[in-house]
Amino acid sequence: MRLNTPEAVLRVNRRALIAALLAAALCLVAVSLPIWEFSVTVFARKSGNTFVGDEKYQAVKAEVEAEAARYSEETGAVTQLFENVTERTNSKGEKTSMVAFEVRQAMRRTGWDFVRSPLASGRILLALILCLLAAAVLLGAGMMGAMDTDWPELDLRKRGMRMGAAGLGLVALLLVPVFMMSCNLAFTRWIKLASDGMPRPGTEALLHTLDGFLYGGTAGDKVLELMGGVRHGPLWPLLATLPLLVGFGLCAVVCADGDPRHTLARALLIAFVVVLCVVILYPYYVMVITGFRSNAETTDMYFQHMFPTKWVWGNLKDIIDRGVLRYLLNSLLLSVGATAIALLCGIPAAYAMARMHFAGRKVFLGFVIMSQMFSPVVLLVGISRLMNTLHLNDSLLGLIFINAAFNQAFAIWLLRGTFVSISSEMEQAACIDGCSTVSAMLRVLLPIAAPGIVTTLIFVFINAWNEYTISTVLISTTSNKPITVGITQFSSFNMIEWQYLFAAALLATVPVVILFMCIEKHLAAGLTAGGVKG
Amino acid sequence: MNTIPIRHKWEPYVWLLPSILLMSIFVVFPIGIVFKLSMSEISKAGVVGAWNNFANFRAAFRDPAFGTVMQNTAVWVVSVVGLSTLLGFVTAMALNAEFRGRRVARSIVVFPWATSLVIQASVWNYIIKGEYGNLNNVLLNLGIIKSAVNWRATYQIEFAWECGVGIFVTIPFVAFTVLAGLQSIDNAYYEAATVDGAGFWRKLWNVTIPLVKPSLTVCTVLNIIYVFNSFPIIYTITKGAPANKTDTMVTLLYMRAFYDNQKGPATAMSVIGFAILCVCAGVYMMVTMRKEEQ
Q: Apex CA A65: angle with CA A60 and CA A66, to 5°?
């Protein structure tokens, strides 16, 4: 090996570390296998209000011993009897005692048996071990004779081997949570569900394999009853492999990249973004899967699937029958109307603010900024009174005006920012050529300012579309409700039809989210920078 | 200067007229009405009577829920604005870094902003349902918990969830305003700092934060106002139950005005809320106007 530079030494050290870690992970899994044990309870009996040595105790003990003897005789297995006494003082100050008897089979199952068993979890574990093994072999072969060679200089075969090792390591990494999950499903939840008298598809087969693993197929129909007594040994060796594997993955990246601190920062960044995206998408996932489930499944306490067992597209038809299209149409009219009015009033105002000097300009600007604070919610009582006076309550037209007015400040703000950022030279020239101010704006400025105008337009549209509070106060006629108010008809105090609620919510959300994604690039800049450029 | 010649002195006012009219009728007028109502006697049928010597304000302060609700409002505004500013800042920093899929990540982060609050609140209301909520379902399926957890055991926990949802929906707004600030920072500052040997934290403290401060201030003040006025989250998840223990000022106001038919005290509360907002608005205006002058 040519270890003539410090970097080369470092590189070799790093690679040796990876190989060592991989070997450690493999050893840990292998060594830990015999440590986790399953001891099998063949019979359990609890006896309440029983004191050690009294008549009831004797009777129950005799019964348990008889059961143990019968089991030994049937299967030829050696059994042990355990008893556990719980004493406590009840609320009346009397002493009570409970004795729990348990007959355990002396033979124990270890992790090795588990791997060899036909259980899905066992197979996953086997796959994990094989993956690690293969990764170790590949890595070893890939490193052989080329410990300090840089990536670009490696020959293709060695590259492939290292890549393969990394890939297999990744697969092993992914297998750990899968394994945990399948263990949990196999041992806790499914058993509980099945023993609650609610058989689920697949339970039979699972119980059969469990029977094969734990009782050698002798338990038969009684497996459920007996399963209550299965204990598994310490799980910490398994939990310890997880950080080790993560460390392995990290080292693999370091190996390719070089600087561990940089790599760590990078990994943190990516992890943060991934977690953030998952958390943000979670409610939307809920909306989608719940919107297309049946009513029974949405409120099923024991619903076991991450996705609907059957996608009920009929929900869409049902909500349309209940007038959702009408609400969507109302929302569309409301948003289009409000946007049109807000822009028709806002563009001239923003133009005057951006291009003209006049007394009171500052005052108007102050008013615009102030009115961004006026929330319709605080003014609800006033608004509903005003609408009564104008005979606009319970009508879409009233909502249109209110939405336009409350978005006005924001529209002017955004538009003004856009106009100010555009040079006025062309308009000045147009004015000198005898063009009126109106046509200077229409023909010269607006085409240039189109992107900014579209942003404003979409923003006002979305605000109006999502508005809820005023609509809920002002609108009482069903056929005038916008979608945000309309979907609340699916939730009343005593019953909420979640599947309809979310199917409708989905229809209301998707178009707006798409619109928002279109303006995402310009939005933030407009919000804060609107006034800065003046 | 970026202006065009005007022909008549009154011309700019004509340009402003439609906007002024619209805002006067639908924004300024209701403010006037609310102020007038808060000072007058209002009968059960809604007939407005004479000036009643601030009886409405006294009734509002005597409202059994008033103390709790003010406290809740304070907790709500401080926790939601504080935490969402912090998390939004971190999000903005992350989204400003270069990595593959950044555009996708940015589009995803904008989602909660684009979704109606009432829909967001309904979804979260379902997620945290005790018996069949989706959070329980997912955690059980992933094997993280062994039996269903009651996520809303007490009203304090429910209120905490509401604050959580508030934070969730506010993060995108903060993230995108801060992101705008971050993007406008000249890279030369960072290069100079790197040459001087500054690490990540020193750069954050001495370059990023001072330069993002203006956008952060504007966004915080706007946020205080939005969050203070936020109505659908609490109204959808708990409706203030039990006994107004999870109400904030805005939801209490709504309940009093439209459920309990106490328009008088409700308008008095509006005026109180309005006064609080005006302080914030004043601060905001000063900040923005100062920026304007620069």
A: 100
The CA dihedral of B115, B121, B123, B125, to the nearest 10 degrees, is 180
pLDDT confidence of residue B88: 92
Give residue A530's pLDDT band: very low, low, confident or very high (50, 70, 90): very low
Q: Is B54's Cβ below 8 Å from some Cβ in A? A: no
Instruction: Name the CATH superfamily housing domain B68-293.
Output: MetI-like (1.10.3720.10)
A327 and A486 in contact (C-beta within 8 Å)?
yes
Q: Is the pLDDT of residue A529 over 60?
A: no
Positions of chain B with pLDDT under 50: none
pTM, to two decimals = 0.71
The fold adopted by the segment(s) A314-529 is MetI-like fold (1.10.3720)
Domain spans, chain A: 6-34+113-258, 41-83+94-107, 314-529
Of B120, B127, B231, nearest to A377 by CB-CB distance is B231
How far is A154 from A134, CA to CA, in rounded Å? 21
Q: Do A473 and B215 touch (CB under 8 A)?
A: no
SS3 A185: helix
* Chain B contact probe: residue of A355, A381, A471 with most B CBs at under 10 A: A381
pLDDT tens-digit readout, A324-350: 899 999 999 999 999 999 999 999 999
* Residue A98: strand pairing partners: A86
Which site among A528, A532, A533 would you substitute to test the B interface, given the most B Cβ atoms closer than 10 Å to its Cβ?
A528
Beta bridge partners of A100: A46, A84
The answer, for B181 touching chain A at a CB cutoff of 8 Å, is: yes
Residue B197, C-beta contacts closer than 8 angstroms, at least 6 positions apart: none
Query: Chain B closest CA to A65's CA: distance in Å?
Result: 33
Q: Tell me, what's the pLDDT at A215? A: 66
pLDDT digits 0-9 by tens, B139-173: 877 766 767 778 888 888 899 999 999 999 999 88
Predicted pLDDT at B148: 74
For chain B, the structural domain boundaries read 68-293
User: Is the distance from CB of A286 to CB of B125 less than 8 angstroms?
Assistant: no
